[in-house]
TrEMBL record:
Keywords: Coiled coil. This is Recombinase family protein. GO terms for molecular function: DNA binding; DNA strand exchange activity. The keyword Coiled coil applies. It comes from the Bacteria. Residues 19-168 form the Resolvase/invertase-type recombinase catalytic domain. Residues 175-280 form the Recombinase domain. Residues 416-443 form a coiled coil. CDD domains: Ser_Recombinase. Pfam families: Recombinase (PF07508), Resolvase (PF00239), Zn_ribbon_recom (PF13408). It comes from Niallia alba.
Length: 507
């Protein structure tokens, strides 16, 4: 075969038309998103035509929650086809990112799995194409923005709970030893005896958690959730200040209005016993070491992982040394706190140089719809109930005007008063919902954008360990360390990013 023929064949391969699946799903709430299946498909076909992409097939799911993949057979079939390289498609195309999932971590996982087999996700409305390195960063930014906005909303929409907390009222949840009556805690006598038994056996007779749990299980006594007692269940009882008359709100305790079960001297004895007893230190979750695998040993070049740290000092350690000992390599410990603070500072500078504002604005607008969806649904439900109560009241009034119906002033009056009380409660609930809706609409995208761009370190704080690690690994390829004998002098030498500022420009 001649060189020209080979060259022509290579050019044909390069020019192979890209292929894609379309995924369609309608929002379960008509208030927040009325983009029909037909409209989504129309936009996807238009996008494919404009970008010379062959649309191979479409997959559709009925109205389902965007938070779960359960029952979404269309998505599962499409996803499995892509992963198994059926139809040789290059992309999954959706109209909006939330058609895949409203859970950002789920979307990140799907994106990563697609990327691992050389496939990509395109979201038309969100301007996301994970074939573009910048979009990979953008998806993580969306996660950060989502977390931040939820924090803003939670701070201001929980004012009712804050007021109850200030008054020492119970804020909800199941507590062994109590039941909730009209939002107030009321003791359950037979459960109270179990709580007192746990405290006395632990604090006075020095029984351990496991011994107490085993005894209760043998006696056939179950937890509030009708489960067997465990070590953690017993420990939770012993640490819960509700039993001494306190309530908790956002990590702080204060005097409550409910009846206490445990006297202060017994409580203090139990807490002192807990402090003096020694237990094996729990292993730190690997996810709390976000730079594992990124830091490189200055001696052998192997990845550095969670080190054999103490409760006070934590380190990253050469993986070869950790697995094979000194004969393979030295530990070359790097202080965890130093490494992560340094990288966070560098990432903050990294994001300052990116122009992500237009994309974040699109994301926050979409996020607003996500947050409003359940509120609109609840408002609709309450509105129907109000209409139903009004209809009942009208029926009673009609009966009063009907001369053929025996009149009992007391019965009719009590019935009307009952309906009026129900009506007032529903109107109050509706007003609370509408207040939340108004607040969310006032929470401008510009405020979120400005904050997210300038305060990356604050955004990082609200992420879970898993999200932090995922973000670091998407942005950073390797972190190199200076080779020094002394741990204190072992500093970060350089950072190699997965993306350079040149291919991150979104202007």
């Amino acid at each position: 075969m001649s060189k020209n023929n080979k060259k022509n064949m290579r050019n044909k391969e390069v020019r192979r038309k890209k292929r894609a699946y379309a995924y369609l799903r309608k929002s379960p709430n008509k208030f927040t998103d009325n983009t029909s299946i037909e409209k989504q498909l129309e936009e996807i076909r238009k996008y494919c035509e404009e970008n010379d992409i062959e649309l191979v097939d479409t997959f559709t799911d009925d109205l389902k929650s965007g938070k779960s993949f359960e029952g979404r057979d269309g998505f599962k079939e499409m996803y499995n086809n892509v992963i198994r390289s059926k139809d040789d498609v290059d992309y999954i195309i959706v109209f909006k990112q939330d058609r895949i999932s409203r859970d950002t971590l789920d979307t990140l996982y799907i994106m990563k799995r697609l990327n691992s087999v050389g496939k990509h996700l395109i979201s038309i409305k969100d301007n996301v194409n994970t074939e573009d390195p910048a979009s990979k960063i953008l998806v993580h930014i969306l996660a950060l923005v989502a977390e931040l906005e939820r924090e803003f909303i939670n701070m201001r929409t929980f004012s009712g709970m804050e007021k109850r907390a200030e008054e020492g009222k119970f804020l909800g949840g199941k507590v062994y030893g109590y039941k909730t009556v009209n939002k107030e805690l009321v003791v359950v006598p037979h459960e109270v005896e179990v709580v007192k038994f746990i405290f006395k056996k632990y604090a006075i007779e020095k029984w351990g958690y496991k011994k107490i749990a085993s005894y209760l299980n043998i006696q056939g006594i179950k937890t509030k959730n009708k489960q067997y007692w465990t070590i953690n269940a017993v420990k939770t009882i012993l640490q819960n200040q509700i039993y001494i008359g306190n309530t908790k709100w956002r990590g702080k305790y204060q005097k409550g209005q409910h009846e206490k079960i445990i006297e202060i001297p017994l409580w203090n004895l139990a807490q002192e016993t807990m402090k003096t007893r020694s237990y094996k230190q729990e292993k730190v979750h690997p996810g709390s070491y976000p730079l594992s695998g990124l830091l490189k040993c200055p001696e052998c070049g192997s990845s550095m992982v969670q080190g054999n740290s103490s409760s006070k000092y934590k380190y990253y350690q050469c993986s070869k040394n950790k697995n094979s000992g000194k004969a393979a390599c030295s530990s070359n410990l790097v202080k965890k706190e130093y490494a992560e603070e340094t990288i966070l500072h560098e990432l903050n500078n990294f994001f300052q140089n990116l122009n992500l504002a237009p994309y974040i604005k699109s994301a926050t607008d979409s996020l607003l719809c996500f947050e409003l969806e359940p509120l609109y649904k609840e408002a609709e439900k309450i509105d129907k109930e109000i209409k139903h109560i009004n209809k009942k009241m009208e029926t009673v009034m009609d009966l009063l005007d009907d001369e053929t119906v025996p009149f009992d002033d007391k019965v009719f009056k009590n019935r009307l008063l009952g309906y009026q009380e129900q009506l007032n409660k529903q109107k109050l609930k509706l007003e609370e919902i509408n207040t939340q809706i108004r607040f969310k609409k006032r929470q401008t995208s510009n405020e979120i954008i400005a904050y997210s761009v300038k305060n990356f370190s604050d955004l990082y704080e609200v992420l879970s360990d898993e999200e932090r690690k995922s973000l670091c690994h998407y942005i950073i390829k390797e972190i190199h360390i200076f080779k020094e004998e002394n741990t204190k002098q072992r500093k970060i030498k350089s950072i190699i990013y997965n993306f350079s500022p040149d291919n991150l420009s979104l202007v």
